[in-house]
Amino acid sequence: MLRKFKVYKERKQHRDGPYGHLFEPYEGDEVVSLDCETTSLDVKEAEILSIGAVRIKGRRVKTSERLDIKLKPPKSLTGDSIVIHKIRAMDLSEGVEIEEALEQVLDFVGNRPILGYYVNFDINMLDKFLRPRYGFGLPNKAIELSHVYHDIVKWKSIGGDVDLRFDTIANKLNLPMLERHTALGDAITVALMYVRLKFGEAPKL
After folding, report:
1. How far apart are CA 197 and CA 191, in angstroms?
2. Which end of the chain is less packed: N or C, by CB atoms within 10 Å?
3. Where are the beta strands (DSSP E) in the chain?
4. Nearest in space to 33 (alpha carbons), one of 61, 7, 58, 3
5. CA-to-CA dists, residue 87 to 37, 74, 121, 162, angstroms
6. How crowded is residue 107: how many other Cβ atoms within 10 Å of its Cβ?
7. Residue 38 to residues 10, 47, 151, 172: CA-CA distances in angstroms?
8. Consecutive sets of 10 residues in the chain, 205 residues long: mean pLDDT of each?
9. CATH-assigned architecture of domain 2-144
10. Closest of 16, 57, 19 to residue 136, by C-alpha
């Protein structure tokens, strides 16, 4: 509810500005699968290390239309976080500044719906840097992959919980996990999961 209120307020403020097109209702048939690799899972403390995104059009994951951004290494990049995402400072030696990364994201995503696994975390991470610079966060519709999976398979399950772990969903959908824990790899894997769920055979439990 808080996000909806912020989007409504920011739409009124920016709809006639240079980024007004981002607030217009999307009428196309594309979705953008997006993922961020960060130094922490705490939005307040985390810094963005890399951003990956790929467009989906109908049944097609358009891997030729993708975003693969590495940012300059932040001071908060420590050994503890490297264990999780396997990204070292030397891997980001040619990274861009956050301002350039945000421009690329806004241009690539436009007003298309954003798909992700724990998508609200990725949106909140980007909003953390967007709002101080632009005065608004991402207004896009958010699609949570685990919710799509849950809604499709729940009717086949009599009682019990549905396992919504990333690896489990990929396994149930018989899909490989591409470059796990890289932003682009996770974005493409999520895109493939989404297409399989929307257009393929429902997974077996």
Report:
1. 10
2. N
3. 30-38, 48-57, 60-70, 114-116, 142-144
4. 61
5. 9, 12, 19, 31
6. 9
7. 26, 5, 29, 27
8. 83 92 95 94 91 95 94 70 57 79 97 97 97 96 95 66 88 83 91 92 55
9. 2-Layer Sandwich (3.30)
10. 19
Q: Strand, helix or coil at 22?
A: helix
The radius of gyration computed from the CA coordinates of the chain, to the nearest angstrom, equals 17
pLDDT at position 23, please? 95
Q: What tokens appear for 114 in the block?
A: 């954003």
The DSSP annotation for 133-192 comes to HHS----S-EEEHHHHHHHHHGGG--SS-----HHHHHHHTT---TTTTSHHHHHHHHHH
The dihedral formed by the CA atoms of 77, 79, 80 and 83, expressed in degrees to the nearest 10: 100
pTM across the whole model? 0.88
Query: For position 5, what pLDDT does the model report?
Result: 86
Cβ neighbors of 14 (< 8 A, separation 6 or more) are: 20, 22, 23, 135, 136
- Structure-token match 């690799």, residue found: 37
